[in-house]
Amino acid sequence: MCSPLGLKSTEFPSTYVCMKKNLKFNKSMELFKEASKYLPAGVSSNARVWKGAICPSYMPCSIFIKKAYGSHIWDVDGNEYIDYRLGYGPVILGHSFEYVRKAVHDAETKGTVYALDNELEITVAKKIKSLVKCADMIRYANSGTEATMTAIRLARWYTDKEKIIKFEGHYHGHHDYLLFNTFPPFESVRRKPIPASYGIPDKIKDYVIIEDWNDFDSIERTVKKYHNEVAAIICEPVMGNAAVMPPEDGYLKHLRKLCDDYGIVLIFDEVKTGFRLSRGGAQEVYNIKPDLAAFAKSLGNGYPIAAIVGIQDIMEEIAPNKVLQGGTYSGNRISLTAANAMLDFIKKKDIYGYLNKYGKKLMKGIRDLFEDHDIRGIVQGFPEMFQFLFTKKESIKTYRDLKYCDMQLFAKLQFELLKRGVMIDEDNGEPIYTCYSHTEKDLQDTLGAIEEAIHVLE
Q: What pTM did the predictor assign?
């Protein structure tokens, strides 16, 4: 048997051993202590401090990685894992995927940053336009944060209104304007804007309206009341920041109609869903065309690139003396080359058929294990991006539903899986991702590890 990488099963590194491992992080701990002298909190992103945003952690320090290849990742202590974090989702083909890597290495010989245009900007834009419903025009950026920040700036200028409606539990980057109610306390007042960071000016909360995901009546009442002030509704079309919570049937259509009826811009944050749920992202899956959308992550299979895409009337407002958007590294040759190769590959290969098959087997296997061991839990989401939760509820539909989930049990299981060579995120809110390089052996090893870890919990 060969994996999609072309590796024979005998050549692919094996990780799973049916016995409890003594997991050690000696070198990671040493490096973490040293890094803490030079890097705030010892990391380059707060999310890498493994202590859990909405659940606890069993990790003693941030894990330092030595290398990653295909569906596997190795830390500096020699621990090897089947990777289901995949860089928080960007790695949809596989780590160091040859088709992308070779293209990038060739591009490196031609320079990196020009501060002038290059033909790849057009080539990649055409490919995005051919796949994404709302992509009449495209402007490149470097991160999802930049993309959503630009999208709301555009919406404000285009509508001549200033307030933004966002949903509790949705994350749209770390800029001030949308960094509210990402992980508010479950006992906090509903729909009260709560900043997720210190340092955000208090007055910015006056420009943010918080809503509950999947609540048809509430969003309709809010839009009718505030439509003269609201420039945009922004959402993750599938909530992927607080577990994986799909929209209820007709909910995105409901948002689309409200925006049409009241002159509001609809923005999809497809940073996680874009080029992951399908070639056209969530827009294709749900057949809904937003006015603007933000893409990043899977667009470059791990290389830093993002894009603001949208309908022509709005996108043309990005221009000198109108809406400012720019960046020294925006549209750089290396990231564009990675995106170009990734887009070519997903057009040539049925990666989504493979991800669908693999992910469904994994989701079913977890459900079966829960049932076999009489564990109250659910598995929800998509084969490409899902999560399991320990709860008596039949489904989790909105952020506050998470208070009925046993985050402590999840964190314990996550650590037991690490011992057995399977890496999922410690945070129950972060999805489990699949990639094109996961193999049948990975699947069987993962389910074997979960079954053994469950016995430890009993």
A: 0.93
